[in-house]
Amino acid sequence: DVYSFGIVLLELITGQRAIVRNDDGEKISVAHYVEPFFEIGELDGVVDPQLRGDFSSDSAWKFVEVAMSCVRERGTNRPAMNQIVSELQQCLAAELEKEKW
């Protein structure tokens, strides 16, 4: 389903598991971990440190936007898979274009 796919996308970009511990030691979903960074537009708080610098920040941010749209609370507000695929293809195209330079 779309929500689960969004969680997988967040696991990929953050390098975190689906369930993480917050600063208080509580177990939370990776979506709740990413949410405060997403709300303030802070990509560095989201991206796995092992990936930093080796990607287009525009495509990484788009990737995070897609992932967060997949985990919206109401299922009716989540995108269709064909829209997700299209947006992820745009992310890939941006990365491939970056590699040419």
Automatic annotation (TrEMBL):
<dbReference type="InterPro" id="IPR011009">
    <property type="entry name" value="Kinase-like_dom_sf"/>
</dbReference>
<keyword id="KW-0675">Receptor</keyword>
<keyword id="KW-0418">Kinase</keyword>
<keyword id="KW-0808">Transferase</keyword>
<dbReference type="GO" id="GO:0016301">
    <property type="term" value="F:kinase activity"/>
</dbReference>
<protein>
    <submittedName>
        <fullName>Putative LRR receptor-like serine/threonine-protein kinase</fullName>
    </submittedName>
</protein>
